[in-house]
Design brief:
Layout: H1 2-6, H2 12-24, H3 28-33, H4 41-55, H5 60-64, E1 66-69, E2 72-75, H6 85-100, E3 107-111, H7 117-126, E4 130-134, H8 137-149, E5 156-160, E6 173-178, H9 185-190, H10 194-197, H11 202-205, H12 213-221, E7 226-235, H13 241-249, E8 258-265, E9 271-278
Parallel strand pairs: 3-4, 3-6, 4-5, 6-7
Antiparallel strand pairs: 1-2, 7-9, 8-9
Helix pairs in contact: 2-4, 6-7
Length: 279
């Protein structure tokens, strides 16, 4: 732990427990209960190797190959972003909306699915089918593995596509949930921690100069596929609420408009989720 502290790595105590628990196949409680036991030489060598990787600022989730999300374990690698609590908030709001408000019958789409956590949680919590869309074949393989792990491979359909370009203009989609790339290039260059900037996939982070390139494309294209009364709920950056709300409130000539455009704040009081209904 001292080595991680000297390297200014935050939350290093938790990192040590996760790495050692991974090597010894023990939970945190199991490690505490086994505090007086001697670690064998092979396990110690493996642990030191993992510790060296963490000292290089590689995220623990990539080192051990999984991340807890929604109280479930998901496989992750450097093809996908590591799932974060902000996306749990998005899912809470989506599930609440579907259960408590009327939405039309139709297809559910997870746009920019990454590791598949959104698709899988929706399939489990709502007993529904979901179409998981990503431009990255590597990300879709991670989604496939996670679907198999959680027994929803028959509910989640994988689609390799640049956003909605593969869909016909039939307006038969009832719900689009998305966690698109929304980090600005300045933030990637100057603000992100090394764990993110050096190890997480640029494709899944880079939202252009202002972080809104993909959001703008999604705004333009959704009226083509969302049916009347269809809903979009999208994770956004904490400082993007006003800009994203304006994008979705501004009509585009010749296409249906969005109503009930809201920016939902997370538990820290920060703008986090766009919610909008199409006419």
């Amino acid at each position: 732990m001292a080595l991680l502290t000297e390297a200014n790595i935050p939350d290093c105590r938790s990192d040590v427990f996760l790495l050692l628990g991974h090597v010894l196949e023990k939970s945190r409680t199991g490690l505490l209960a086994a505090g007086g036991e001697q670690v064998d030489a092979v396990s110690e060598a493996i642990f030191r190797n993992l510790l060296d990787r963490r000292l290089q600022r590689e995220p623990v989730a990539y080192i051990i190959g999984e991340q807890e999300f929604w109280s479930l374990d998901f496989m992750v690698n450097r093809k996908v972003l590591i799932p974060r609590p902000e996306t749990e908030f998005l899912l809470e709001r989506v599930i609440s909306h579907v259960k408590n408000r009327s939405i039309p019958a139709g297809r559910f789409i997870d746009l920019c699915c990454g590791s598949g956590v959104i698709s899988i949680v929706l399939a489990l919590e709502l007993a529904c089918s979901v179409e998981a869309v990503d431009i990255s074949a590597g990300a879709l393989q991670v989604t496939r593995d996670n679907c198999l792990r959680h027994g929803v491979d028959n509910q989640v359909r994988l689609i390799c596509s640049d956003l909605t370009s593969c869909f016909h203009s039939e307006r038969d989609v009832a719900l689009v949930v998305s966690n698109p790339p929304y980090v600005s290039r300045r933030a990637i260059r100057d603000e992100l921690e090394p764990e993110v900037a050096r190890f997480e996939p640029r494709l899944a982070l880079d939202g252009g100069e202002e972080g809104l390139d993909l959001v703008r494309r999604i705004r333009v294209d959704l009226p083509r596929i969302l049916k009347p009364g269809g809903v979009v709920m999208m994770e956004i950056g904490f400082d993007q609420g006003d800009a994203v709300k304006s994008l979705f409130q501004t009509g585009i000539e010749g296409t249906p408009s969005f109503n009930e455009v809201e920016i939902l704040r997370d538990y820290s009081g920060r703008d986090r989720v766009l919610s909008a209904v199409i006419e």
